[in-house]
């Protein structure tokens, strides 16, 4: 059942794209606090990758309003069409996050209410994708569940798949791919019960050449 629901996510959002966009609305409500924490770590006019951008509102719209440049990707062409309607000059792409390879690095990456639709193995496979699109000091924020498991909700009368790894595994995956956790909250009551991860790419530690010709780690 869980595997079937996971494989149907893209189709579900394609079938219900307009209804979802209407229900989602155009205003930030519970997300504002965490989005402010995310943008506080970014440079001005940052280039941001929105992974699972949906219809472009309200999250991407809020980032654009702050002067940032957003590249948005979503598996549902209907969602990307709405992004292009709202922001015709933007860079909006139909793409599956699991195989994403844009050949570019970003100052910020966001997977808000999207990454958690993947099954466990696909979530594990996303961390190299995050790493490959992270510029120096890049900021990453995503939502998950509070503990390892699967939760099947419902939207439009269809099963809606969510999954989560254990928090310790998320920390290990972030660390292994060069990120350090800046902030984390499980079932945050100030964010509508979301579980949120905010991380940043670690600075690479410098190396120097010793008198013998070998390399020595500094610091």
UniProtKB/TrEMBL annotation:
One of its GO terms (molecular function) is methyltransferase activity. Keywords: Methyltransferase, Transferase. InterPro entries: Methyltransf_25, SAM-dependent_MTases_sf. This is Class I SAM-dependent methyltransferase. The keyword Methyltransferase applies. It comes from the Bacteria. It comes from Neoroseomonas soli. The keyword Methyltransferase applies. Residues 48-136 form the Methyltransferase domain. GO terms for biological process: methylation.
């Amino acid at each position: 059942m869980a595997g079937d629901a996971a494989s149907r996510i893209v189709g579900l959002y394609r079938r219900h794209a307009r209804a979802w966009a209407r229900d989602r609305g155009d205003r930030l409500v519970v997300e504002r606090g965490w989005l402010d924490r995310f943008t506080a770590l970014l440079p001005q006019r940052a280039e941001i990758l929105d992974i699972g951008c949906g219809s472009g509102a309200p999250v991407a719209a809020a980032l654009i309003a702050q002067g940032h440049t957003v590249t948005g990707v979503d598996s549902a062409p209907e969602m990307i069409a709405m992004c292009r309607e709202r922001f015709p000059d933007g860079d909006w792409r139909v793409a599956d996050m699991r195989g994403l390879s844009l050949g570019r690095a970003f100052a910020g990456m966001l997977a808000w209410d999207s990454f958690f639709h993947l099954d466990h193995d696909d979530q594990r496979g996303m961390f190299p994708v995050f790493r490959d699109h992270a510029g120096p000091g890049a900021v990453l924020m995503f939502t998950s569940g509070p503990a390892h498991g699967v939760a099947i909700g419902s939207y439009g009368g269809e099963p809606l798949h969510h999954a989560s790894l254990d928090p310790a595994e998320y920390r290990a995956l972030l660390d292994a791919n060069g990120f350090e956790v800046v902030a984390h909250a499980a079932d945050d009551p100030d964010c509508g019960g979301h579980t949120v991860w905010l991380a940043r790419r670690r600075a690479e530690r410098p190396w120097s050449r010793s008198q013998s010709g070998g390399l020595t780690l500094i610091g």
